[in-house]
Recover the amino acids of this structure.
């Protein structure tokens, strides 16, 4: 039981995260929300199992803590860590820098007028 429970927990986390995040969710926000709820439910299940059987406290609690730490590190690595953007940005000449003959006619009466 001490070996099977952590392995079952790892399988449940992986299967639930994949299914809810990749199959069920249609958007990134939905995937994050569903995965968060899945982690919370599994955390509650681990807490209840550890309260019922003290022998599972270290194997299940340690496994869940390690999974949570690795997941948070992966989230940080893929999102927050990136600070530099290397992409090409198309820019044009502002209309105010064009000669008067080449400026487009302003048709929007609410637009700032020159």
């Amino acid at each position: 039981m001490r070996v099977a429970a952590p392995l079952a927990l790892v399988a449940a986390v992986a299967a639930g995260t994949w299914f809810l995040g990749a199959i069920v969710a249609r958007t990134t926000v939905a995937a994050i929300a569903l995965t968060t709820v899945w982690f919370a439910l599994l955390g509650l299940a681990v807490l209840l199992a550890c309260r019922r059987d003290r022998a599972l406290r270290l194997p299940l609690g340690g496994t869940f803590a390690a999974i949570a730490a690795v997941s948070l590190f992966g989230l940080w690595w893929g999102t927050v860590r990136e600070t530099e953007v290397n992409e090409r940005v198309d820019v044009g000449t502002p209309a105010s820098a064009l000669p008067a003959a080449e400026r487009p006619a302003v048709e929007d009466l609410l637009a700032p007028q020159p």
